[in-house]
Write a structure and sequence with these properties.
Elements lengths: L22 E3 L9 H22 L7 E5 L18 H14 L21 E4 L4 E4 L7 H16 L12 H19 L4 H8 L22 H4 L1 H17 L1 H9 L5 H5 L7 E5 L2 H7 L6 E6 L2 H12 L14 E10 L7 E8 L2 H22 L7 E5 L2 E5 L7 H5 L2 E5 L2 H6 L39 H11 L10 H18 L4 H21 L7 H4 L2 H12 L12 H28 L5 H5 L7 E5 L2 H6 L2 E7 L2 H11 L16 E11 L9 E8 L2 H14 L4 H4 L6 E5 L2 E5 L7 H7 L1 E5 L2 H6 L10
Parallel strand pairs: 1-2, 2-4
Antiparallel strand pairs: 3-4, 5-11, 6-7, 7-8, 8-10, 9-10, 12-18, 13-14, 14-15, 15-17, 16-17
Helix pairs in contact: 1-3, 2-12, 3-4, 4-7, 7-8, 16-17, 16-20, 17-20, 19-20
Length: 763
């Protein structure tokens, strides 16, 4: 959201491309771009807006202009957001907050700090009714929905336009929790990962509304700037769950008056708004020609950030005394010389004890505040006056009593504050002149928001999951500790009895690893809700994007598949049959990686035992043996360009039915025969066998170093079996084909019952 002060020069070739939705889509792309090239982003924007309307169910009062982000002529002002201020205002903003001791962007830390060349992914300019979106981003559907929701909010609740950073940043941060929070609920509905993050915010009474993804940064402009995005989504989600979209409307009609009301909803009370005697402050400094620059409100979250930056304050919630904050206001006087500015800050508290604690805490950091900010001429002092604390620099102590007597009005509701003229401002920004006051949902309009489109796929299912996550009985896995022990025992069993069979061990790992992962989540209060909030269909995608976002080939890695697919298998078992399903998975885990990659009715898997005795008769022995399995073959094909590096498993691999590799040595050391590899694979059909053989021949030369099989290795196809034999072992091919022992198993338990073949007995 932004309010740019620069005029936009519209050089676009205008076209009402989305007229049926009341959206003016301007094709603001290079002249050489054809209509066919424009269509994809236009269609996506059209669809995202329709789906956002289906979720939000608010009428649209006037068409919204949509432009590519590249046409936005503004920037990002650090500490303010996607807002363009003239330099004199930006400088006054920075100096004012430096006087407080937070958000201080000094010139020697990064230029003038006025703007950044990096544009946001999207923003809505409510003053111009223009939605900007980065149409070149990989994923911007959710961004369109988020920013369009802002358009609906401001059109239907115009009193929100009174939330202005320049006058009251605490109120703006608090009010924007319902603006940004409501837009995030809509925008995140398009992204399963973000749905899960929002769902996981604790619903417990007295629990933290702080999401786990928000890394607290008290400085660098995060305490206020990020507050709406960090704490707003939970507030809006709870309203949506309780009362539907009417609950979101109620929040917009009367947003919270302070960040404390968001942090501590149960302790919400009247907020003191203060009018400082700024004229008298300037008069007291008349001989030095000082002028009031920024006057603003720090609020509970700002004080929390101040203490986090300069003292010892908790990261997971504000210190207890801040629960008694009632209101505050500061004024910064800019004086002609460097490091000689003056400062006054009146804070009000509900108890004298809280006022005293704030005064003591500020006294302990006063010198650090001055050194950090670098704008004040001397350290301010905190003076207690019953339930008020006045922080002033020495030159302003002469009007201390007058500051204590500043005009104060208390408000309990946003609409009462609006009706007062937005005290201490002189006027409110209300473009509709009093119509559509807060407290009433706007009526119908001639051009309603399109709502015939369906909500994004999975939205209704996600809301149902969130409701389930709020049920304490659904959050824990019954008998999780016992399941964790059983998973550990299975891991030891498979490692011992699956020696020489990497495919089996990876498949088994998917079973015990998936169950073990869920039980570890269950034991961690921070993550207990994850498996409830994520459907089993989303679990694998969440794991890959969270843990393996930067990994090469995330879909088919031998490390990633057991982890991600295994957790998805376990989540599906838990979703279907609860703890009983998890025990069934541990009792009979997948027998092959094919069963992990493509769960379904199991196909028999051929296990093979090399004819060691017969080979010994020819002076040969098996030095090493293993099974590649579907996962190993798929990785090999991707390595050498025979398969796409994505989630598209080559169809012929569905016909894999078992394989065995063996490294065979012959002679006693003086024998001239070279050792070599044999690779035997079984397939569901001659066609699948031929396809594998064809792929192998295509990579044989390049893959020789990895497979150990030279280009001259013989490739024979015998119905459903492919034999790949090193040249030095050609004379043994007949022995291998005649004496190779093969047993097929349809499931893990059948393999175990038969003694864990090719072993004689399971250990």
């Amino acid at each position: 959201m932004c309010t740019p002060t620069t005029d936009h020069q519209d050089t676009c070739q205008g076209a009402n491309l989305g007229k049926r939705f009341g959206i003016v889509l301007l094709a603001c792309l290079p002249a050489a771009t054809s209509a066919d090239e424009v269509a994809p982003w236009r269609n996506l924007v059209d669809r995202a807006i329709a789906q956002a309307c289906a979720i939000r169910q608010l009428p649209m009062k006037r068409p919204v202009e949509v432009r590519p982000m590249t046409t936005f002529e503004g920037g990002y002002t650090k500490g303010i957001g996607s807002t363009v201020w003239e330099e004199q205002y930006a400088q006054a903003w920075r100096d004012g907050w430096c006087a407080v001791g937070v958000y201080c962007e000094r010139q020697n830390r990064g230029g003038d700090g006025s703007s950044s060349p990096n544009r946001p992914r999207g923003l809505y300019d409510h003053s111009a009714n223009v939605l900007y979106v980065d149409v070149e981003a990989d994923d911007y559907e959710g961004t369109v929905a988020h920013e369009f929701t802002h358009a609906l909010q401001h059109q239907n609740f115009p009193a929100l336009n009174a939330l202005h950073l320049w006058y009251n940043r605490d109120l703006a941060a608090a009010g924007n929790t319902v603006i940004e929070g409501g837009a995030h609920v809509v925008g995140w509905s398009f992204r399963p990962n973000q749905r899960a993050q929002l769902c996981m915010v604790t619903p417990d009474e007295g629990g933290s509304r702080q999401p786990r993804w928000w890394g607290w940064a008290p400085d660098d402009f995060k305490a206020h700037e990020m507050f709406p995005h960090a704490f707003g989504p939970a507030l809006s989600l709870e309203a949506l769950l309780a009362d539907g979209t009417a609950g979101l409307d109620a929040l917009l009609a009367n947003p919270p008056l302070s960040t404390l009301a968001v942090l501590r909803p149960a302790q919400d009370g009247p907020v003191d708004f203060i009018r400082l005697p700024v004229d008298e402050m300037e008069a007291a400094m008349a001989d030095r020609n000082c002028q009031v620059g920024l006057s603003n409100t720090v609020g509970a979250v700002g004080i929390w950030g101040l203490l986090r930056l300069h003292a010892d304050a908790p990261v997971d919630g504000p210190p207890g005394f801040l629960d008694q904050w009632a209101g505050d206001r500061f004024a910064h006087l800019s004086c002609p010389n460097d490091n000689d500015d003056e400062f006054a800050w009146l804070t009000r508290w509900r108890t004298a004890d809280a006022a005293r604690e704030f005064a003591e805490r500020f006294h302990a950091i006063a010198e650090m505040v001055v050194d950090y900010g670098g704008v004040l001429g001397a350290a301010p002092t905190a003076f207690e006056r019953d339930r008020s604390v006045v922080v002033v620099t020495p030159a302003l102590e002469q009007i201390l009593d007058r500051l204590v007597e500043s005009e104060v009005r208390a408000f309990s509701h946003y609409d009462d504050w609006i009706a007062s003229g937005c005290f201490p401002q002189n006027t409110c920004y209300d473009p509709d002149g009093g119509r559509n006051r807060p407290g009433q949902r706007p009526g119908s309009v001639d051009d309603p928001c399109p709502s015939k489109a369906a909500a994004p796929p999975g939205f209704a299912d996600w809301l149902a999951r969130v409701h389930r996550a709020r049920d304490p009985s659904a959050r824990r896995i019954p008998d999780a500790e016992s399941l964790a022990e059983a998973a550990g025992r299975l891991g030891v069993f498979c490692a011992t009895n699956g020696a020489g069979n990497s495919d089996l061990k990876n498949a088994c790992r998917a079973g015990y690893g998936g169950v073990g992962y869920l039980t570890r989540l269950d034991a961690d209060p921070e993550w207990q809700l994850l498996r409830v909030c994520l459907g089993s269909g989303d679990f694998r995608a969440w794991l890959e994007s969270t843990y393996y976002a930067d990994a090469d080939r995330p879909f088919a890695s031998t490390a990633i598949v057991p982890t991600t697919h295994g957790a998805a298998l376990a989540a599906r078992a838990l979703e279907t049959d609860g703890a009983v399903g998890l025990r069934a998975l541990l009792d009979s885990p997948p027998l092959s990686t094919l069963a992990v990659l493509r769960p379904g009715p199991p196909a028999p898997v051929a296990f093979m035992r090399m004819p060691r005795a017969e080979l010994a008769e020819h002076g040969c022995q098996v030095a090493a043996t293993d099974s590649q399995g579907v996962l190993g073959i798929w990785n090999l094909l991707m390595d050498y360009g025979e398969a796409p590096e994505d989630d598209a498993l080559p169809p012929f691999l569905l016909g894999w039915r078992g394989d065995r590799q063996a490294f065979i040595r012959c002679g006693d050391g003086g024998d001239s025969r070279e050792p070599g590899w044999v690779w035997i694979s079984r397939w569901a059909s001659p066609q699948a066998a031929e396809t594998f053989a064809s792929h192998y021949r295509a990579i044989a030369r390049d893959a020789a170093g990895e497979t150990g099989l030279p280009t001259s290795a013989r490739v024979d196809i015998d119905q459903d079996t492919v034999w790949i034999v090193a040249p030095s072992l050609h004379e043994l091919a007949a022995v291998l084909k005649d004496r190779l022992e093969v047993r097929a198993y349809s499931g893990f338990r059948e393999w175990v019952t038969d003694g864990c073949f090719p072993r004689d007995d399971c250990r």
